[in-house]
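pinning this so it doesn't scroll away 📌
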Amino acid sequence: MKKFFIVMGALIVALSIFGIWDTAKTKKEDAERAKMTSVFYADVEKIEEVEGKKKFTIVGIEGEAGSDEKFVGKKYTFTENKDTKALNEKGEEAKLADFKEGSKIVIQHIGKIKEGDINELTGEVTIAPYNPAPVDATEPIAETSPTDTTGETSTEAPTEATAAE
């Protein structure tokens, strides 16, 4: 019986050490992947067929917050492969054929960039149409405050009574 408990204790210690090692390895891989991930906005300059696959040439443009500014004004190219994904405006899967020359797109790239006259994106490339959200400046901004009886929030404009509180 003593041997059984010794073996079980050793097994528990071994599994704990493996779990700690695996967690550290996963965190390291996630950090490396995060370093290789970039998001930027681009104009599609040219789309051509190369050996039966689409090859995109794009130029980085300024975009919304969160866009990596180091891509602005530079040319990039990528060729359709198993890691290339296309999304539509709703975030659903689309076809690369839906994208035309001159359209504005959002690029999420996970991988390395081969530097050159025209930089090449390698690894995973996800493209989607760039549709900046329109801002309606004529709509008043409402104040959100809890109502007295229900505790729910209200989006009514402030009145003299609520402004005095």
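📌 and the second one:
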Amino acid sequence: QLSGGQQQRVACARALASRPELIFADEPTGNLDSRAGLEVLGFLRGAVDDLGQTVVMVTHDPGAAAHSDLVLFLADGRIVDEIPEPTADAVLERMKRFDTVRGPSGGGRLAQEG
């Protein structure tokens, strides 16, 4: 039986093995310890740098986002901001500027301070 981290690494290796042009990674480090998470991010970064693949990653982790070439911030199905060549600190600071405001219906919208 494989641990969660091992399962995640195997899934990542399978996704990369066929060398698709586009890889979707939904919270690829979400259930991993920091070491295993960095290993998965390294696999994904290598797919881009070494194999010319494109990775679209969804994450709420500024550290994971910092491994990307471009961070897009989404709200209500729209791109509301972006950071090219992000650092973890820059992503975290930008995230802090956004505030979710809920109306009486429970729906949300994204408001940016400033």
